[in-house]
Amino acid sequence: MTEPILPREVSRAFDAFPTPMRKRLLQVRKLIFATAAAHEEVGRLSETLKWGEPAYLTEETGSGSTIRLGRLKASDHAAILFNCKTTLIDTFRERFPDKFEYRQTRALLLPVAGKLPKRELAVCLSLALTYHLDRRGGKAK
């Protein structure tokens, strides 16, 4: 499955990022859709804006926690932002302590250059997209 066409307002939000960051975040977007497609319990994702940044929600099934793409002040890294009330960042830190840079309980940071660590990042995205299933005792891993 390929990712859907960008909604106009989301496309504008991507266009507002500096080119290297935009390219990195679009790679992450593609991986979000590929990861969601690998989990039928996730269903179709909603792509919208939250706080002016591209956001991915599992509204159809309620299986996961929102994933938002953006940047943090005082950082030149691309940021994948998660709900700070979840345990997602703690889980990512446990599994991949040296693979990513993290900010508090809300962000996983990626350098804008170099190879995207797809395998590890797909695990993190999968955990976010199935977060509520895990909490409800679902079969998602």
Overview of this protein structure:
The chain has a 6-stranded antiparallel sheet with strand order 1-2-3-4-6-5. Helix 2 (19-37) crosses helix 4. The protein starts with 7 loop residues before the first helix and ends in a 6-residue tail after the last helix. By secondary structure, the chain is α+β, with helices and mostly antiparallel strands. It has helices spanning 8-15, 19-37, 88-95, 118-129, 131-135; strands at residues 46-50, 53-57, 67-71, 78-82, 101-103, 107-110. The relative contact order is 0.18. This is DUF1801 domain-containing protein.
Give the DSSP E fraction (strand runs of 2 or more residues). 15-25%
Listing every helix as H and every strand as E from the N terminus to the C terminus, the arrangement reads HHEEEEHEEHH
**Rg computed from alpha carbons, rounded to a whole number of angstroms:** 14 Å
Mean pLDDT: 93
- Quickly give the structural class: alpha+beta
Largest sheet: 6 strands, antiparallel
**How many beta-strand segments?**
6
Number of helices: 5
Task: State the share of residues found in helices, binned by percent.
Answer: 25-40%
Termini separation comes to 21 Å
User: Spatial order of the strands in the main sheet?
Assistant: 1-2-3-4-6-5
Global morphology: globular
Low-pLDDT stretches are none
Protein name: DUF1801 domain-containing protein
Organism: Bradyrhizobium diversitatis
